[in-house]
Amino acid sequence: MKRQLNIFHKVLITLLIATLVPLCALWYLGNSAAEKELTANISENLVATMNTVATGINAWDETNVRALRQAARTADLVSMDGGRQTPVLGAIGVTYEWSYLVFTVATDGRNVARNDGGALTNYGDRSYFKAVMSGDDVARQVAIGKSTGKPSLIVATPIRNDARAVVGVLGMAMNLGDISRTVTDIHIGNTGHAILLDAENKVIAHGDASKVRTALQDFSGHPALKVATITEQPSVYVSEGVKMIGFQRKLPQGWSVLVEQEYGEAFATLAKMQREARILILVTIALVVGMAYLLGKQLTSPINQLTAIAEKLSRGQLTVNIPQTGRGDEIGALARAIERLGISIGMAMDRLRKKSA
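The structure assignment produced for this chain is given below.
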């Protein structure tokens, strides 16, 4: 037997359509607009942070390179005499406190002088030395420092004599941990940070202190670097099981900067709005069900009573009380009609009895 909808169900469906359709439509439109605006704000914030970090890194790197170039032109360094070079190297080390070693290397790779008083070491195998000797005006390398055994950044420039011939190499070495504190000490919320990578995607600096390692970190496999659009606009990816939003930019040195933040924190405001909207919809549904129940009961109760009265009348029980006749609505009109019907049935039955007598 096909199940029919009763008044309660019809009232409930009507109220749900009347309230939830416009409410959900408004929520959808408002949520879409808020998501677009919030996404734009987050993107602008990441780009602005990127610009700040990139400007700071470029300025910091230019400061180091300028200092090395100026020092490389002094007569003491051009002399390639370790005794004359050591005081100059010491002054550079004091001025640029993030460097742990300032040193010179002869054209055969031998360490000529250094500011830390440590044992002279051969640096002929280092790529920065080879690059300078091959004609590069500035060379940079991320490597394990021979003096510290820790990840380091080495910046080097040539030492030239008056004839512009290369007579040696001047280098500055910095611990990556110190660079992280100096260069990328910038945060976005609680989870946002910047990461500085060299041309081979090795970490030079990391804004998250907990991620700074005692060994070289290769970020070539980092999910952010596999997102094709990340250098064009902030993009979403998953790193170590956490959804992130990040932006990457190439720097003139061949380095790149990655600024990233956890997606959940970045879009926390939107998530809160969506939770509140869902709660509002659930509360609305509960109120609608309650109203439908009350309205349905108010409608079905008198109708059920009138149905029972009509049933009695159909069986000839004409002495019935119809309390709804005093109502001014449609149910009152129906009650009065049933009352008149009962009177008519009674009169008809009286006539039939008189004819049969």
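Interim note for the steering committee: The two ends are 47 Å apart (CA to CA). The first strand starts at residue 99 and ends at 106.
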